[in-house]
Amino acid sequence: MEDYVVEMLHITKEFPGIRANDDITLQLRRGEIHALLGENGAGKSTLMSVLFGLYQPDSGEIKKDGETVRIDDPNDANALGIGMVHQHFKLVHNFTVLQNIVLGVESTRHGLLKMDQARKRVLALSEQYGLRVEPDALISDITVGMQQRVEILKMLYRDNDILIFDEPTAVLTPQEIDMLMEIMRGLAKEGKSILFITHKLNEIMAVADRCTVLQRGRCIGTVDVKDTTREELSRMMVGRPVELELKKNEAHPGETALEVRGLSMWNRNRRKKLLDNINFHVRKGEIVCLAGIDGNGQSELIYALAGLRPIDEGTILLSGQDITRASVRKRNDSGLAHIPEDRHKDGLVLDYTLEENLVLKRYHTPAFQKHGFLDFRAIRENAERLIDAYDVRSGQGAATTVRSMSGGNQQKAIIAREVDTGSEVLLAVQPTRGLDVGAIENIQRELLNLRDQGRAILLVSLELEEVMSLPDRILVIYEGQIVAELDPKTVTSQELGLYMAGSKREEVVG
Amino acid sequence: MKKKLVSLIDSPGFLSAMSSISAIVLGLLFGFLILLISNPGQAVQGLGIILQGGFSGGAKGIGQVLYLATPIIMTGLAVGFAFKTGLFNIGTPGQFIVGAYVAIYIGVKWTFLGGVQWIVALLGATVAGGLWALIPGILKAYLNVHEVIASIMMNYIGMYTVNMLIKRTVYNSLKNQSMNVAATAEIPRFGMDKVFVNVKGNLMDTSTVNGGFFIAIAAAVVIYILLNKTKFGYELKACGANRFASRYAGINEKRTIVLSMVISGMLAGLGGGLLYLSGANGRHISVIDVLAEEGFNGISVALLGLNNPIGIVFSALFIAYITLGGNYLQRLAFMPEVINIIIAVIIYFAALSLVVRQVIMYLRRRREQRAAVKAAASEGGAQE
Ligand SMILES: Nc1ncnc2c1ncn2[C@@H]1O[C@H](COP(=O)(O)OP(=O)(O)OP(=O)(O)O)[C@@H](O)[C@H]1O
Ligand SMILES: [Mg+2]
Question: Which pLDDT belongs to residue B312?
Fold first, then answer.
C-alpha cells in the first residue's frame, strides 16, 4: 500500500456551460512535491479549491490518511492541516503585512495582542526563508511580488502540513523563485506534502517528484518527473508539440514612438524619489525590456506613462506629441495600449461580462456606440472575433462574467483587447504571466509580429528567460534609476543579474 | 415545455424575483404578529384588510395606490440607480423635499407661466433635487467623504430649510402646511379622474391620481435604458464595480461619481414635484420636523425591486398598496400609531430580510477567508 496523505478520487465539478473537473483522480504521497500542470482553464484551480473546501464536488471522494473526509469549507481544510496560497491573493488591503499574517491567529494576553511575539516569529520566518517583507507596510502600498511573499508567510506561520501553491511563482523574480524552490524542498524533507501548480516546466523539472497533467478538465496522467522531459510534459498538456525555443528575425527599428525625458517621481510624503531622472526611448519596430527586481520603480514608471499616476518632473512624448499632462483617455486614444501589472485591480471589471471587458478601452468609439447608445451587435462580434483569435476559454463565451474565468484566460482577454486596439505603443507588463506554455508561445509570437509590423513595445518582465529572449534592447532599472542598457544577444544572465541587483552599473544616456 | 419551465426557474431573474416575493411574505407574517399583539380579536380581519389593500377602496382606491406609488417609484429609482453605480444615496429625503418645495413655490407664485406652469415646476423640482445631491457627490469624488454621511447631513439641512422657506413664502398658517398650487400648476389628469372615481349618486369621489404616474413610469424606462443601453450607463456601472479599472479605461471617474449622484438627486427631486403638484385634495408639505418618509421608502422600494428600474415600479406599487390597506385599518379598533407601525414593519421587515439575504450571500462568498481565519484562531489558541 502506498502512503498517501491525500487522495482525490474521481472528482467531477461542473460550472454553467463547462465541466471544469471531469473524473479526476490525484493522489498525494507524504513528503512529496506534486506538480499540477495543464492549460489555462484546464481545471487546476478548481480541483485545488475542491480540496480546500471552496467548492463541493458534484461527485467523487476525498481521503485524508486513507479515511474519507468531508471538506465543507476552508475551516475543515484547515483543521485537516491543508493550507492554500491562492492564484489571486486574499489579503486585507488596509491592514499591514504583519496584521495580515497573524490575522486570526493573534496570540493575546489579558485580551491584548501580543504583537511583539508575532513580529519576532514573522521576522524569523521571513529571515529563514528569505521572504523579504516590510512588516509595517500596508498591503495596498506594496507590490504584487511582496503580497505574494506575505501569502506564503501566512501559510508558513500557520504550520499547515499539506500546502497548496496555486501559481506562487508567477509573480516572483528568478532569484526569489530559486529561493522558493529551496524552501519547498526543505518543507518536503520535513515531511510536509506540497501540491504545486505552475506553468513553468523548468520549475517542475527542478523540484517536483511527480506531475499530474490535466487537459480540458480531464486527467491525462501522472508521471514521475525524473523519467520525463519538458518537451514530453508540454506535449501531454497541450496535445501537440510546443516550440519551447523562441525564433525571431532581426529587428528593423524605425522612428521614435515613445520618448521619456528627465522623468522623476517622489513618493507620497516626498521623502524618497521613486523614479529619478529617467531617460529612454522606444522606437517603432522594437521591443525594449525594462528589467529589474520587483519594486525598483518599474510599476511606477508604467503608471506614469499610462497617466495613472502624476509625475513631478520630466516629459513624455508619444510619437513626438507631448502627453505629459494628457488624460488617460487622451493617451489611450492617441495610441497607447497597456497590459497592466495587476489584472484584477486595473485590467478588468470583474463583474462585467467578457464582451463588455473586451471593449473597455474602446466602448466610446464610433465602432461600438452611436449617439451614446451601445451597439451590442458590434460588441458581441468583437468579442467573438477576439475569443477565437486568442483562444480565450470560458464557460459561456462572450457572456461569461469575467470573475468566473480562469486566471490565464483573464490574462488572455486583456492581451487580446490591448493588442487589438492597434495602438502604436504597447506597454506590456508581464504579459505572459499565468499563461500556459502553449499560450506563451502564441503571445510571444504575436508580440514579435507586432514588432515586425512596426509597433513599439515596452516590456516589463521579471522572467529571466523572457528578458533574455524576447526584447531587442534591455534597460535595467534599479532603485528608480536606469542603470544600464544591454544587448540581449551579448549579455549573459549572470551579468544581467548583477546589474539588476545593483552591484554593477554603467553610465547610460537616453 | 417542461424544459422551458425548468430553465425559467433556474434563470437568475426568476430567482431574484422569488427572493423579493419571499421577503414580502416574511414581512406580512411579521406584520400579522404585530396585529396579533396589538388587537388579537381583529388580527385576522385586519390582515385581510391590509391584503385587500387599495382594492377595498374601489376604483378610487386603485387610483390612490397609483398616486402613492408615484413618488416612491421616483425615490426608489434614485436609490436603485445610485446603487448600480456603486453609491448609496441615503439623501433622498432631502432631495425629495427640496424638489417638492421648489415645485410648490413655482406652482404657487409663477402663475404668469400659464399652461406650462406645471412643467416648469417639475423641471424646477428636478434641478433642485440634483443640486442637493451635487454637494455629497463632489465631496465623495474629490475629498473622499463618504456619501452616506454627507447626504444624511444634507437631509436635515434640506428639511429645516424647506420648513423655514415654506413659512416665509407659501405658508397656509391655518393648516400649518404649504399652500395649494395654482390650477395651471397641477399635473394634468390625462383622463385618470374619469377612471379612478367612485360614483355615489351625484357625488363624485375622485382619486387624486394624475399624469404624474405616467411620468414616473417614463422615468423608470429612461433609467433602464440609460443604465443598460448607453455608453454613459456602461461608464456609470464600471465606476461602481471597479474605480481603478475605470480610470485605466480612461473614464473620468470623479466626474462620473458626481453625475451619478446628481442624476439620483434629480430623480428624487422630481418625485417631490410629482407628489405635491396635485390640487387641493392632494398632499401638502406639513411643517413638521420629520424627514420625508417617501425618501426613506425609496430605499425599501429599491431593495425589494433589486435595484432594477422595472422591479422598482412593481415594488413601489406593492408598498403603496399595503400602505393604503393599512390606512383602511382605521375602520377597525386599531390606533393610527399602531397602523403606521404595522405598515412600516411590513415594509422594512421585507426589505431587511432581503438585506440579510444579501449579507449572507456576501459572507458566503467570503467565507473561505473568514473560515480560514477562524480555523487558524482555534489553532492559535492551541499554540498558546
Ligand atoms: N466559479 C466559477 N463559475 C463558473 N465557471 C468557473 C468558475 N470557476 C472556474 N470556472 C471555469 O472552469 C474552468 C476551469 O477553471 P480553473 O480556474 O480551474 O482553471 P485553471 O486550470 O486554474 O486555469 P489557469 O491556468 O488559467 O489558472 C474555466 O473554464 C473557468 O471558466
Ligand atoms: Mg488557475
Answer: 94
Chain B residues whose CB is inside 8 A of the A346 CB are 244-245, 247-248
Does this model's pTM top 0.80? My answer is yes
- Which fold, B59-333? ABC transporter involved in vitamin B12 uptake, BtuC (1.10.3470)
Q: Do B242 and A329 touch (CB under 8 A)?
A: no
- Residue of A8, A12, A15, A26 to test ligand 1 pocket, by largest number of atoms within 8 Å of CB: A15
- Residue A489 grid coordinates: 544577444
- Structural domain spans, chain A: 4-238, 246-335+425-510, 343-421
Contact B212, B74 (CB under 8 A): no
> Where does ligand 1 bind, in terms of residues with CB under 6 Å?
A 15-16, 18, 20, 38, 40-46, 87, 393-395, 404-409
Cell reading at A7: 487522495
For residue A79, report the distance from its CA to the centre of ligand 1, in Å. Answer: 26
- Residue A364 in contact with partner chain B when CB distance is under 8 A: yes
Q: DSSP for A179-238?
A: HHHHHHHHHHHTT-EEEEE-S-HHHHHHH-SEEEEEETTEEEEEEEGGG--HHHHHHHHH
Ligand number nearest CA of A166 is 2
Buried b (16+ CB within 10 A) or exposed e, A403-417: ebbbbbbbbbbbbbb
What are B45-71's pLDDT values in tens digits? 888 888 887 787 788 888 989 999 999
User: What mean pLDDT is reported for chain A?
Assistant: 89
C-alpha triplet A396, A398, A404: angle, nearest 5°:
55
Question: Torsions phi, psi of A73, nearest 5?
Answer: -155, 170
Q: What is the DSSP letter of A474?
A: E
Residues with beta carbon < 5 A to ion ligand 2? A 45, 87, 406-407
How many C-beta neighbours within 10 Å does residue A67 have? 8
Helix (H, G, I), strand (E, B) or coil at A59: strand
Interchain proximity B248–A346, CB inside 8 Å: yes
Contact A75 B371 (CB under 8 A): yes
Q: Is the pLDDT of residue B369 over 70?
A: no
> Do the domains spanning A4-238 and A246-335+425-510 agree at the CATH topology level?
yes
CATH 3.40.630.10 assigned to A4-238: no
The HSE-up count of residue B170 (CA atoms within 13 Å, CB side) is 24
Cβ–Cβ below 8 Å for A104 and B246: no
A298-335 pLDDT, tens per residue?
999 999 999 999 999 999 999 999 999 999 999 999 99
- Domain A246-335+425-510 fold is Rossmann fold (3.40.50)
Within an 8 Å CB–CB cutoff, is residue B372 touching chain A? Answer: yes
What pLDDT shows up at residue A509? 45
Ligand 1 centre and the CA of A202: distance in Å? 24
The residue-averaged pLDDT of A66-76 equals 89
Q: Do A349 and B371 make contact, defined as CB atoms within 8 angstroms?
A: no
pLDDT by residue (tens digit) across B249-303? Answer: 999 999 999 999 999 999 999 999 999 998 888 888 888 888 888 898 899 899 8
